[in-house]
Design brief:
This protein has four helices and two strands. The chain is of the alpha+beta class.
Amino acid sequence: MGRWSLLTNHALVLIAVGQRPHSTLREIAQSVGITERAALSILRALEEDGLISRERQGRRNRYWLHYGAILREHREAGLTLLQITELLADIARRA
């Protein structure tokens, strides 16, 4: 059987930002297991899509998740980020 992952790198970056909003790009990349360049590309895409925003604070960025943002992919059926996290939490409670 092939290896697969339930969560994409985009989802893992969202989780990393949510858990540690003051993380550096390097810390985010390391926590996800991707290159800094890939992490930067994902962060930019998430920001462009309105799922996160960032503010420069000194030498670091501070990230915010926008839980009410509508996911644009058809597969998510118009669910908000908050609704998806609640569904995953429900699955975890039942496991």
